[in-house]
Amino acid sequence: MLAVATALPTSAQEPEVAPPSSTREGVYTVEQAERGEEIMHDVCANCHMDDEFVGTFIKSWAGASVGDLFEEVSTSMPQDRPGSLRPRQYAQVLAYIFQLNGLPPGEVLMSSSIEELREIIIEGSQG
Ligand code: HEC
User: Which site from 4, 45, 61, 124 is most exposed, i.e. has the minimal number of CB atoms within 10 Å?
Assistant: First the structure.
């Protein structure tokens, strides 16, 4: 497993409320997960079952960043038309995958910027 990188922002531009740094801290909204579910069932379900993205899948990504996962999925999926979704739709799909794994929603929309998502480390719901 990869070591968890704790790259804290050092600049004076740090926002007043620190953004979440782990998928356990509420990195997506309920609405994003709902949209993600629709996309998953419309676009991905031809080839994938939701179950594939639960448990072992998220554990295999633990320690990597949400940006890494976003980049992987947005450049390789859907396999027959890679990159065909909008960035915000990929974020919605990831939100749904996090929800499937019991990771909590929060108040702030998950970004669709890979750079911003690199600040969030993937952790499963329990260890
Ligand atoms: C046409 C079939 C097809 C569609 C549609 C498709 N996938 Fe895939 N997907 C695959 C295949 C085959 C693999 C395994 C081989 C690979 O990794 O390229 C895969 C692998 C994956 C992986 C594992 C990547 C990894 O490195 O762990 C993820 C995540 C994934 N798909 C997500 C999605 C999502 C999200 C969608 C919908 C936006 C989607 N896929 C649509 C065929 C598809």
Answer: 45
Q: What is the mean pLDDT of the chain?
A: 91
Phi (first) and psi of residue 36, to 5 degrees: -60, -35
Q: Whose CA is nearest to atom 13 of ligand 1?
A: 79
Give per-residue pLDDT as tens, 17-65: 777 899 999 999 999 999 999 999 999 999 999 999 999 999 999 999 9
The reported pTM is 0.88
- Spatial contact of 108 and 29, defined as CB atoms under 8 Å apart: yes
Contacts of 66 (CB under 8 A, 6+ apart): 23, 27, 94, 110, 117, 118, 120, 121, 122
Name the residue with the closest Cα to ligand 1, atom 9. 79
Cβ 105 vs Cβ 30: under 8 Å: yes
The set of protein residues with a Cβ atom below 6 angstroms from ligand 1 is 43-44, 46-48, 72-73, 76-80, 85, 93
The residue ranges of every structural domain in the chain are 23-117
